[in-house]
């Protein structure tokens, strides 16, 4: 019986990896374009937001106190308005970018 | 012919995205348990499918793919459980965002 396509693919990759050939530069040399940058930013913000939501969820499961309790603790830190505003901006930025760029993808 | 699974998945992804978008004004205008739990579901599913695409793009090899996808399932299950727990035992997503922003 002749080899299957799957077997031939496997042999190709095995030989290729064994030869230890270097990979040509691609991402590092290709001229950046706006669509490229926007696309990877969409992915980056998406992953970051997802991980943020998951972190929040796991914290909700593990931490003993309630949300208002921890919020009161943060309020008690007496952080200045500049710091609070910057923090809100840093949270809102990936959210809005991903949201609006998402709409662009949908339409 | 082939299977329609991939095509249906694609459509499902767009549908959940639109639903999630619609939930944002809903969260602002009518906060409450209905929106809280809908957000928990839509957010988890949208994230699960999104991260799934990232795995498909960058993870290669039968075993790494299986490991990554299994890990993703665990993460998404935990995420949904945590969000529902928060909605039930704590103030809920809508209220939490409102409270956080009032800082």
Description:
The complex is a heterodimer of chains A (107) and B (103). With 107 residues, chain A is mainly alpha-helical. Chain A has a domain at 35-106: Fumarate reductase/succinate dehydrogenase, transmembrane subunit (3 helical TM bundles of succinate and fumarate reductases, Up-down Bundle). Chain A contains four helices and no strands. The longest helix of chain A is centred in the middle third of the chain and has 29 residues, at 34-62. Chain B is an all-alpha fold and 103 residues long. Helices cover 85% and strands 0% of the residues of chain B. Chain B is globular and about 50 Å long. The relative contact order of chain B is 0.12. The model of chain B has no long low-confidence stretch (mean pLDDT 95). At the A-B interface, α2, α3 and α4 of A face α1, α2, α3 and α4 of B. Chain A: It is a multi-pass membrane protein.
